[in-house]
């Protein structure tokens, strides 16, 4: 069972009118469960805590209880994709999607050590080919790259990686990610009902703290008018050690603060996403995400 032992501080070092996407590291633990329904309407799954969401491409999308909490995936919640048996589509209607799945435009796809490898756990009892499609710029869906993997049918979870390093330099700050649940054969032949489960979708190399940040709520914080000091609200009284790391896990800052002087000078940080952790001997660790431009 996944258990989050951290509170979250979600801090954006941005003007109030500007927003940045959360790096891809999704476990679906922060999403509400929904009632599975094959072919009875198409929905959008949104996180309880943030604006993260997964939308349908002709497949029912639900967050459900993990159907097999053994082996490599003992988490509580997973993403379920259901394709009804009655759907028959032509290539023109399918637009090359072959055919059903889900997409999201609410995550960033950062490059880690000059690579972009997307990893996920998949439970698919029927053998076949699955695909991930990356659209570098969500405003232009005509430019994309698809990476496919043929996986055996199994009642057990499998870890699958999709390597997009070849287009890493072209991925913008607003990409689109598709997961296509069946790419075997022709589009019109894909008429059988199919259910696929997906979990732990992430960029390989991201620090594990990203996972914890996505799963929990936010602690109040604010940026001063000069946009150079990071301040926290409602810190329990005490001394804190603060560590700031980049997404590769490299520590950029390490300092001690007291709750009465709860601010950090972030003017020297380069543009990017950082993980901030606050530790003390008397409270649980606080952990959050800093996005600086």
Spell out the key features of this protein.
single chain, 293 residues, mainly beta, Jelly Rolls, Immunoglobulin-like, six-stranded antiparallel sheet, 2 helices, 42% strand, disordered N terminus
What does this protein structure show overall?
The protein contains two helices and 22 strands. The strands form five sheets. Strands 3, 6, 7, 10, 13 and 15 form a six-stranded antiparallel β-sheet that branches. A six-stranded antiparallel β-sheet has the order 4-5-8-14-11-12, with no helix packed on it. The protein has two domains: 181 residues, Sandwich (Jelly Rolls); 73 residues, Immunoglobulin-like (Sandwich), CATH 2.60.40.3080. The chain is mainly beta and 293 residues long. The N terminus is likely disordered.
Mean model confidence by pLDDT: 75
For this structure, what is the CATH homologous superfamily of the largest domain? Galactose-binding domain-like
Q: State the shape.
A: globular
Question: Structural class from helices and strands?
Answer: mainly beta
Q: How does CATH name the architecture of the largest domain?
A: Sandwich
The end-to-end span amounts to: 36 Å
Report the strand count: 22
Largest sheet: 6 strands, antiparallel
CATH class of the largest domain: Mainly Beta
Portion in strands: 35-45%
Rounded radius of gyration (Å)? 20 Å
CATH topology of the largest domain: Jelly Rolls
Summed up, the helix count is 2
Poorly predicted regions are 1-19, 89-97, 213-219
Return the string of H and E elements: EEEEEEEHEEEEEEEEHEEEEEEE
Percent range of helical residues: under 10%
Q: What oligomeric state best describes the polypeptide chains here?
A: single chain
Please tell me the total number of domains: 2
């Amino acid at each position: 069972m996944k258990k989050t032992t951290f509170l979250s501080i979600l801090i954006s070092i941005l003007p109030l009118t500007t927003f940045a996407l959360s790096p891809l590291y999704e476990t679906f633990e922060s999403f509400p469960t929904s009632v599975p329904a094959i072919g009875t309407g198409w929905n959008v799954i949104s996180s309880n805590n943030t604006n993260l969401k997964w939308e349908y491409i002709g497949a029912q999308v639900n967050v459900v209880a993990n159907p097999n909490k053994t082996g490599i995936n003992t988490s509580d919640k997973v993403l379920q994709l259901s394709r009804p048996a009655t759907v028959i589509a032509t290539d023109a209607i399918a637009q090359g999607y072959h055919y059903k799945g889900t997409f999201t435009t609410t995550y960033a796809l950062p490059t880690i050590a000059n690579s972009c490898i997307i990893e996920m756990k998949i439970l698919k009892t029927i053998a076949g080919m699955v695909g991930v499609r990356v659209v570098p710029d969500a405003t232009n869906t005509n430019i994309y790259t698809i990476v496919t993997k043929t996986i055996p049918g199994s009642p057990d979870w499998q870890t699958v990686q999709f390597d997009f390093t070849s287009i890493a330099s072209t991925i913008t700050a607003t990409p689109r990610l598709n997961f296509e649940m069946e790419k075997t054969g022709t589009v019109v032949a894909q008429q059988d009902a199919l259910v696929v489960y997906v979990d732990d979708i992430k960029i390989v190399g991201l620090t594990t703290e990203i996972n914890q940040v996505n799963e929990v709520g936010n602690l109040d914080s604010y940026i001063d008018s000069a946009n150079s000091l990071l301040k926290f609200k409602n810190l329990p009284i005490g001394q804190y050690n603060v560590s700031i790391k980049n997404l590769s896990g490299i520590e950029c800052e390490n300092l001690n603060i007291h709750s009465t002087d709860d601010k950090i000078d972030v003017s020297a940080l380069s543009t990017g996403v950082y993980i901030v952790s606050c530790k003390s001997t008397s409270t649980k660790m606080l952990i959050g995400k800093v996005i600086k431009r």
